[in-house]
Amino acid sequence: MGDAYCSDCKRSTEVVFDHSAGDTVCSECGLVLEAHSIDETSEWRTFANESGDNDPVRVGGPSNPLLADGGLSTVISKPNGAQGEFLSSSLGRWQNRGSNPDRNLILAFKTIATMADRLGLVATIKDRANEIYKKVEDLKSVKGRNQDAILAACLYIACRQEDKPRTVKEICSVANGATKKEIGRAKEFIVKQLEVEMGQSMEMGTIHAGDFLRRFCSHLGMTNQAVKAAQEAVQKSEELDIRRSPISVAAAIIYMITQLSDEKKPLKDISLATGVAEGTIKNSYKDLYPYASRIIPTFYAKEEDLKNLCSP
Question: Which residues pair with 11 in a beta bridge?
Answer without folding.
Answer: 6
